[in-house]
Amino acid sequence: MQTAATEFAEVLKFRFDTDIEAADGEAGRLAAVIADPATRAATHAVVKTRPLFGVTCFVPLHLVTAATAATVSISIPLAEIEKMRARPDGVILNASTGVTTGRKPLGHLRQITVNRETRAPRHLVIERGGREVLVPAAMIASIAPKQITVELGELNPAQLVRYRPDDVIHQEVYDAIYDYPRLRVDLPGIVIHAIDGVVWLRGYVASDLNRRLVSDQLGSIVGLAELHNELIADNQLAAAVSMALGRDPRTAGELIGVYPRLGTVHLRGNARSAAARQAAGEIARTVPGVQAVVNELHLDPRAEVVPVLASVTNEEDRVPGGT
């Protein structure tokens, strides 16, 4: 069974028995989540307040301001939470909820991750044989009281990706890039997002080769289920900006060198007029992927060539884009 690539979105993680924080402090533990069996969207967090004499409360998810594997934060005080005792419609999902596939037990639900905006499920974390594994929400066939049925297709249950916390995956991705000297200098331009075994790499690297090397470095990370390498290479950015400058009549004949460094584009060389110099900066800023523009063009109405490999001084430089 092939699942669609996971799109990046902010999420809420509901891990059963984690702490609940109300607006005025500690409020109890997360006992369960209620989901609509038709849409599968989560609708309420079930809160068990105070260990001995507490009550079970049903908090609409629009009141949840944050939810991680460690804490669920609710925007109202405990006294308001304890008024919410009416059980809403829907299926209760908790640590006793069994997960089956092909009529065979797969394990028990430990955590559900949902899209923050739509509340649609993204991943299930299942406790299976003493370890936790990930099941993408696309594999959910049905949600019913006490049971979730999933379809793994051709995937063997033993092949399910091991669940590991986001911060652990994030650190191992960072370390893998840092440990490769060629890529280490690109790290300041790379943003790493890790959510339930899915990693997005955004930002900038020096070259197409470095972009490919980053992906190669991450192949052995345990718990990495899906990698989205959305990094932009500086050489691609240079080509795109140069093409835009060449196509615009205000700058087509100007002597401009384009030198990106991790998304910041330096324009160096000579412009024959102040209008052309200003236009060059404006054009470069409109190119998709450009993070910032540093306009270092000199005004020279008589200029005929771009200084070879123009550096910040507009003198010859030994390294392209060198500073």
Q: Keywords for this structure?
A:
3 domains; 22 strands; Histidine-containing Protein, Chain: A; elongated; disordered C terminus; alpha/beta; SH3 type barrels; 323 residues; seven-stranded mixed beta sheet
Largest sheet: 7 strands, mixed
Average pLDDT metric: 90
What is the radius of gyration?
A: 27 Å
Give the tally of β-strands.
22
Which stretches are low in confidence, meaning pLDDT under 50 for 5 or more residues running?
310-323
Helix content range of the residues, please? 10-25%
Q: What structural category arises from helix and sheet content?
A: alpha/beta
Total count of helical runs of at least 4 residues: 6
For this structure, the quaternary state is: single chain
Considering the protein shown, what is the CATH homologous superfamily of the largest domain? PRC-barrel domain
The end-to-end span amounts to: 51 Å
Using the coordinates above, name the CATH class of the largest domain.
Answer: Mainly Beta
**Could you give the order of the helices and strands?**
EEEEEEEHEEEEEEEHHEEHEEHEEHEE
Please state roughly what percent of the residues sit in beta strands, choosing from under 5%, 5-15%, 15-25%, 25-35%, 35-45% or over 45%.
Answer: 35-45%
Which fold does the CATH topology of the largest domain refer to? SH3 type barrels
What is the number of domains?
3
Give the name of the CATH architecture of the largest domain.
Roll
Tertiary shape: elongated
